[in-house]
Amino acid sequence: MVANFFKKPMTMKIPSVPRLFHEHKETSQDLRNVDIFGQPFTSSSHFPPLTPGVMNAMCDVVILHHEVIDHNEASPDSTNEHNFHTQRRLYDRLHAWQDCLPKHLRCEENATPGPRFLRKVFPPLRDAQT
């Protein structure tokens, strides 16, 4: 993840093992923030809220950035037609990922540390109205 923030090629490959943290499969339910004990976060909670699914979203972003950085390293000629189409495909994948983010992972809907960090790492590609 650190190499991703500096926009440099990663020295380690993306792991092929499954993600071991809990993932909520039911995206139709309205997920709420939890405290460090997994209980619903309330105003009386003493610790920052945790947002379910934020770690999976971060992994998705890092994998997409890894692919972009790898492609740009391998194909520095931006005038090449094939290179342009590959860059456009990667950009479209980033748009699709961002458009599929559930409400609880969007900073506009849930201004807590997890979604705020996600937005900082991966700012919106376009306005929410488009």
| Annotation field: number of helices | 4
Shape: elongated
Return the structural class. mainly alpha
Strand content: under 5%
Cα-atom Rg, whole angstroms? Answer: 17 Å
Domain module tally: 1
**Largest sheet report:** none
Structure summary, number of beta strands: 0
Could you give the distance between the termini? 30 Å
Model regions low in confidence, pLDDT < 50 over at least 5 residues: none
Average pLDDT: 79
Percentage of residues assigned to helices? 40-55%
Briefly summarize what is shown:
By secondary structure, this protein is mostly helical. It contains four helices and no strands. Helix 2 (54-74) packs antiparallel against helix 3.
How would you sum up this structure, described in words?
The structure is a single chain. 41% of the residues lie in helices and 0% in strands. It is built from four helices and no strands. The radius of gyration is 17 Å and the shape is elongated. The mean pLDDT is 79.
List the main descriptive attributes of the protein structure presented here.
130 residues, mainly alpha, 4 helices, 0% strand, elongated
